[in-house]
Structure formats: C-alpha cells, structure tokens
Amino acid sequence: MGEMTANTRPQRRKRRMPTADELRVWREYIETAELLRTHVAASLQRECGLSTGDYVVLLALSEADGHRMRSSELASHIGWDRSRLSHHVGRMERRDLIRREECATDNRGAEIVLTRTGADAFDRSTVPHLREIRTAFVDALTAEQLAAAGDVARTLRAHLTETDQLPANGRAGR
Amino acid sequence: MGEMTANTRPQRRKRRMPTADELRVWREYIETAELLRTHVAASLQRECGLSTGDYVVLLALSEADGHRMRSSELASHIGWDRSRLSHHVGRMERRDLIRREECATDNRGAEIVLTRTGADAFDRSTVPHLREIRTAFVDALTAEQLAAAGDVARTLRAHLTETDQLPANGRAGR
DNA sequence: CAAGTGTGATTGACACGTCTACTATCCGCC
DNA sequence: GGCGGATAGTAGACGTGTCAATCACACTTG
To answer: Which residues are A158's β-sheet partners?
Structure first.
C-alpha cells in the first residue's frame, strides 16, 4: 500500500495518461459530489418544495435592496447566463415565488421581485437546508478533512480558470 | 490562522447550524465539482460528440461479453434507473451508437448492443477524455491533495449510504 | 390452467440547462 | 436626427433526469 506511484519510470514529458489509481480518485470525486448534490436537492425538494435553483434565486433576492434585482444583475450575481435565468424565472413566476416588473430606467429591462409567497418559502427553507448540509457534509468530515476539501476545491478551481482563459497562449506557443 | 473553530463555546447537542466557514467550504466543494463536471463534459462533447452519459454506456458495453448487455443489468452496472437508461438508449439508438434487440431467454427483456459506429466513437473518445481528466483534475493537484480528495470522497459516500439506509431507525429512536 | 403478483422495459409529463436566434431598446457618433 | 453596434431579455429546440403510469410477460399457487 505504501507505494504512492509507479512513477519510478522516466516520464517522457507530460504525455502520460492517468493511472488506474488516479482514475479511481477522479471517479470517486465526481460521483460523490454528484450524489451529494442530488441528495441535498432531494431533501430541499421534499421538505420545502424548492429546487436548488429556486433556493439560489430566492437567496439572492432576499438579500437584495427592496427584494428586487435587475435580471442581468441577478444572473451575474449567481453565475448563470441570462437564458437560464429567464427560463427558471418563468417557472418560478408561474408558482408565484417571484414577479416580473418593468424597469423604470431601462425599457428593455426587467426587474425580478420577490413575492410574499417566495419570501415565506425561502424563510421556511433555510433552516432545513442548512441542517441538511451539516448532516450530509460537515458532520461527515473531520476538521482536517474539511480543510482539505476546501483546499482541493480552491486549487482545482484556480487551475480551471487559469488554463481556461489562456487558449490563445496555448496555441501561440506552438 | 490557527483557530480551527470558534467551538470553545459549549455546543448544546447537535442542533448547531453550519458556521460561515463550513458553509463556504460546502459551496466551494459543490460548485467546483459542478464546474469540473461541465468542463469535462463540454470537452468530450466538443472533441468527440459524446455526452458523459453516452461515454458511460459505451464504456460498459465495450467491456461486456459480445458487446451486449441486458437492459436492467446495464442499468444497475452503471447505477442508473431503468427509466433513465431507456430514455438515453432511445436517443443513442437514433444516432446509431447502439441497437436494441429482443432477448431470446426472456420475452420481456431487451438487449442493448454496441454498434460498429458506437464502438468507433468510443475508441476515438477514450484518449482525449482521459487526457482531459488528467489536465483538468490530476495535474492540478499534488499527490497529497489527490489522496486527500479520494479520502474525502470515500468518507462522504460512506456517511451518505450509512445514514440513508437507516431512516426507520432515525424515526424509531424518538 | 387460471388468477394474482412481481418484474423488465417503455412512455409521457414535467423540470432543468445550453445554444442559437430573435426582438426591442440603448448609446455613441456622424 | 438617425444610423449602427452593443445590450437586455425572451423564445424555441433539444438533450437530460425524475417520477408515476402502463404494458407485456414470467412466475407462483390453488
């Protein structure tokens, strides 16, 4: 069990494929995150009738001035593209969780406004949702594991954004 | 840096909500995994025209005896429910990646068979796909981080399955 | 063998995400 | 003022995932 890697062989540059161990960790990582995501989403749906998307939108609106936000502003705040938000907000409007209003200062624009129903639904959802995050995630890990999970996530994200925004460089170097 | 938690206060039982730090790690964890998932999926789609679901199905079939599998067997092998598999396989059949055949030994049953087209698509996809996993995941992490990621994933999954299959106990204990 | 139950698989309805296209408006500039 | 490009938002098409309903066949049992 001790041998960390079989990398005593000279690696020619970086053309190497993942080893079986590395691939196993990848699958554990990605599948577990997926399991957790659906587990927490199912809990939120079951106990509060909200999807994760609903929760994210309601959270942003409940923290916004006047419980309202311009559509684009909301989209960039939660990291969605406008189309996704528009579709989702359409579904939420049918359920009376939010309301769309015209924007006074820009006739193209729309404001998404939190309704009473939406605010109530959000208020009822926070405690169960946070509790589920605690029981399913936080409680499962030691303090060291939690710190490691955060470290890994930040490292991965930094690597991802770093390599993503240099496509020109990658080509130009050739 | 040193103060791991503010938990010098006595915690009354386990009614505690996640702290801001814990919540931040949760969001880093779940959002990063989501980013990685879509990043790798987009790469596979762009370079090979396959979705992650396609890849999973094709991988299972390419490893199966005679490149064919009973539908239920395939579903449980890859951890999907039958409905999901049926929908997906329907779409894959339209693209000629697989074929459905009647089962000789059980007239209810169906066999999913890998087509030539599907086998070729899978063969072309493995190297780019594994390379993407390496560059986006494995290469981003140190050996210690990789080990920690695996450890965290296994711990989380164990905790999840453990608490999931004792719902009666949780209720009954009260 | 007939009735009843369980199982294999499909289907339809709906929520969700992404991409592309389109409309309406705003803004800078001549 | 009016032209042209940028921006805000919506809409359609399609792949994907989940749930409940359905259908056909298999199996068990009287």
So the answer is: none
Provide the 10 A C-beta neighbour count for residue A74: 23
What are the beta bridge partners of residue B111? B70, B101
The residues, ordered by sequence, that sit 6+ positions from B171 with a Cβ below 8 Å of its Cβ are none
Q: What are the tokens at A49? A: 């009738």
The pLDDT tens digits of the residues spanning A24-60 come to 999 999 999 999 999 999 999 999 999 999 999 999 9
Q: Over the Cα atoms of chain B, what is R_g? A: 22
Contact B113, B99 (CB under 8 A): yes
pLDDT confidence of A173, banded at 50, 70, 90? very low
* Six token digits for residue B121: 């698509």
What does DSSP assign to residue A139? G
* Strand C contact set, beta carbon < 7 A: A 51-54, 80-81, 83-84, 87-88, 91, 106-108; B 38, 42, 70-73, 75, 82-83, 85-87, 89-90, 100, 103, 106, 108-111
pTM > 0.90: yes or no: no
Where helices occur in chain B by DSSP H, the ranges are 20-48, 52-63, 71-78, 82-94, 116-136, 143-164, 167-172
Which distant-in-sequence residues (6+ apart) come within 8 Å of A61 by Cβ? A67, A68, A69, A74, A98, A112, A113, A114, A118
